[in-house]
Design goal:
- A seven-stranded mixed beta sheet has the order 1-2-3-4-5-7-6, sandwiched between helices.
- It is globular and about 35 Å long.
- It has helices spanning about 10-25, 35-40, 95-110, 125-130; strands spanning about 1-5, 45-55, 55-65, 80-85, 115-120, 135-140, 145-150.
- The chain has about 150 residues and is an alpha+beta fold.
Length: about 150
């Protein structure tokens, strides 16, 4: 398995990961190729989107974006916003840990000091993953727990 930055040609593979999460009841946001391209690969606030690739199959992705004023998560501008998506069939293989190492390097290179992970309150897997990576709760909304990592 390798960890590498996403490129436009990866939109279909990213969409496949997102679609598998939707089918497993773990995702409710869009999962099509246009969403993958616009939201992860070519987003204007993108710092880095890393992929975990086994052979020619995308097993997971981790997105790091710059929080800009008015962002949908209400994250402090200048912080990083992280999102992690692992194909259900690839869970529990250490992919998230490998992705996070690459994301931390991208955050450091971009001068990011704090990273926010906004996780649905019912997403026990996501809450456990970010806790294991060293994120700590810093605020809550009606539907989410927001965790912060400080570099």
């Amino acid at each position: 398995m390798i960890i590498r930055p996403a490129i436009p040609a990866d939109a279909a593979g990213i969409s496949a990961v997102l679609t598998s999460l939707t089918a497993a009841g773990l995702r409710t946001l869009p999962d099509d190729q246009a969403f993958a391209l616009n939201n992860y690969i070519a987003a204007s606030d993108r710092i880095q989107c890393n992929l975990a690739v086994g052979g020619d199959i995308i097993l997971g992705l981790q997105s790091l974006k710059l929080a800009v004023p008015g962002n949908i998560y209400d994250v402090t501008p200048g912080w990083g916003i992280i999102g992690t998506h692992i194909h259900p069939d690839a869970a529990r293989r250490g992919i998230g840990k490998m992705l996070f190492a690459a994301t931390l390097q991208a955050a450091a290179d971009a001068g990011i000091v704090h990273i926010d992970a906004t996780i649905g309150k019912t997403n026990s897997g996501g809450l456990a993953y970010y806790a294991a990576m060293g994120f700590r709760a810093h605020r809550e909304t009606d539907t989410a727990i927001c965790k912060k990592f400080t570099l």
